[in-house]
Specification:
- The structure is a single chain.
- With 341 residues, this protein is of the alpha/beta class.
- It has 15 helices and nine strands.
- Strands 1, 2, 3, 4, 5, 6, 7, 8 and 9 form a nine-stranded mixed β-sheet that branches.
- The longest helix is centred in the first third of the chain and has 24 residues.
- The chain binds fe (ii) ion.
C-alpha cells in the first residue's frame, strides 16, 4: 500500500516537473500591457513572425495590472509588463515586481538616462504648452514657470493633478528647482485655473480651441493625433491653437516615457528578454513613432510621420527617468497641499 502511495507521489512529481519545463520552453511571451493603442497589434505580430514566439496579451488599466500581478504572486503568468509613464514604472519597481535585466543590446541602444536596472523606456512623449491663438501671446508662455504667472489668471485649463502625466512634470520641477519652488509653482498654477481640473489632455486642447481657456498642457501624441485627423472639427481645433516647446533656454521640455520590464516571476524569461530587445529594434522603434506618434528612444531611427515632422525638433530635458520616480510621492503631496486635484 505504502509502495503504491510512493509510486503515485513520484509520478505526480514527475508530471508537474515535466509541465513546468514544458511551460518554460513553450514559445510564448505573456504580455501585460497598459498601452491602449490599437496600432500595437501589428508590432506584436511582426515579433511573432520573426521569432516564432506568440505574444499573449492581457490588457488592463495601469494600476489594475500592477495589482493583478501582485495578487497572482509566484503563480503569475506575466512575463513582461508594458505601461506608460515613468511614475507608474517606478511603482512596479517599488512593489518589487520587476527582475533586473542585463542586456548588452538594450544598454547599447537605449541612452543611460532612459533606463534603470529593471525597466526601460521604449518611446518618448513631450509635455508641451498649448495656447489660444490671438488670445494669448506665445512669448508669455515660453516656460512651465510662466503658467504660474498672475497675468494668466483665470486662463488655464488642466487635467487632474493626480494624473501621472502632471505628477511626472512636477517631479521634474522638484528635481531641477527643489520642493519649495515646485510648491510655489503648483500654487500659482492653481490660482490661474479657468475651471476645476477635469478630462484628459485632448479635452484641454479642445477647451483652448473653444475659447474656454487660453492655455493648457498636453502630451505631444494627442496633438499629433489631431493633426493627422481627417475630421473637420479636429482640423478647426488645430487651426485655433499654437504649440510651445517649454524651457528651451533652460533645462529643456519635460519628456515622459512609455516603457516596460520583465517580471521577477516570469515563466518565460528567455522569450521575455527577446521581446524587450525587439522593442528596441529599428522596426519597433519606428512603429512607436509612426503608429502612436511618439519619439523613438534609439538614435538615428528613420521616421515616416508627417505630424512629428511638422512638430519639429526641440531640446528635451535629459533628467534620468529614475528621478521622476524618486520625486513622484513628493509631487503628489505638493499637489494635494496646493489644491491641484
Ligand atoms: Fe495618454
Amino acid at each position: 500500500m505504502q509502495l503504491a502511495l510512493l509510486r503515485s507521489f513520484i509520478a505526480c512529481a514527475l508530471a508537474s516537473a515535466f509541465l513546468a519545463s514544458a511551460q518554460a520552453q513553450e514559445k510564448v511571451v505573456n504580455l501585460y500591457s497598459a498601452r491602449h493603442y490599437q496600432t500595437d497589434e501589428a508590432l506584436y505580430s511582426s515579433f511573432t513572425r520573426q521569432t516564432g514566439i506568440t505574444v499573449k496579451r492581457i490588457e488592463g488599466k495601469e494600476d489594475e495590472l500592477l495589482e493583478r500581478i501582485r495578487n497572482e504572486g509566484a503563480n503569475s503568468p506575466a512575463d513582461v509588463l508594458l505601461t506608460v509613464d515613468a511614475a507608474r514604472l517606478a511603482v512596479a519597481h517599488e512593489m518589487g515586481l520587476l527582475a533586473p535585466v542585463r542586456s548588452k543590446l538594450l544598454e547599447a541602444r537605449i541612452p543611460a538616462h532612459l533606463r534603470t536596472d529593471d525597466w526601460f523606456a521604449f518611446s518618448l512623449r513631450a509635455r508641451v504648452i498649448v495656447y489660444a491663438k490671438g488670445a494669448v501671446d506665445p512669448q508669455e508662455v515660453k516656460n512651465y514657470g510662466d503658467l504660474a504667472n498672475p497675468r494668466l489668471r483665470g486662463k488655464l485649463c488642466s487635467r487632474s493633478g493626480s494624473h501621472p502625466y502632471n505628477l511626472s512634470l512636477l517631479a521634474s520641477i522638484i528635481a531641477h528647482q527643489g520642493e519649495a519652488k515646485a510648491e510655489e509653482w503648483a500654487r500659482g498654477v492653481v490660482a490661474n485655473f479657468a475651471r476645476a481640473p477635469k478630462g484628459g489632455d485632448t479635452d484641454q486642447i479642445r477647451a483652448v480651441a473653444a475659447g474656454e481657456c487660453g492655455v493648457a498642457l498636453a502630451n505631444t501624441y494627442y496633438l499629433a493625433r489631431l493633426m493627422r485627423s481627417d475630421k473637420p472639427e479636429d482640423r478647426k481645433t488645430m487651426e485655433r491653437i499654437g504649440v510651445v516647446w517649454p524651457d528651451q533656454k533652460g533645462s529643456g521640455t519635460h519628456v515622459n516615457v512609455s516603457g516596460g520590464g520583465m517580471l521577477k516571476t516570469a515563466p518565460h524569461k528567455e522569450a521575455a528578454l527577446k521581446f524587450l530587445e525587439y522593442l528596441a529594434s529599428d522596426e519597433a522603434q519606428r512603429h512607436f513613432a509612426d503608429g502612436n506618434n511618439e519619439w523613438p528612444v534609439v538614435a538615428g531611427v528613420k521616421l515616416g510621420n508627417p505630424a512629428l515632422e511638422e512638430l519639429g525638433t526641440f531640446k528635451a530635458d535629459k533628467l534620468p527617468v529614475g528621478s521622476l520616480a524618486t520625486y513622484r510621492a513628493k509631487a503628489q503631496l505638493i499637489f494635494d497641499r496646493s489644491g491641484y486635484r
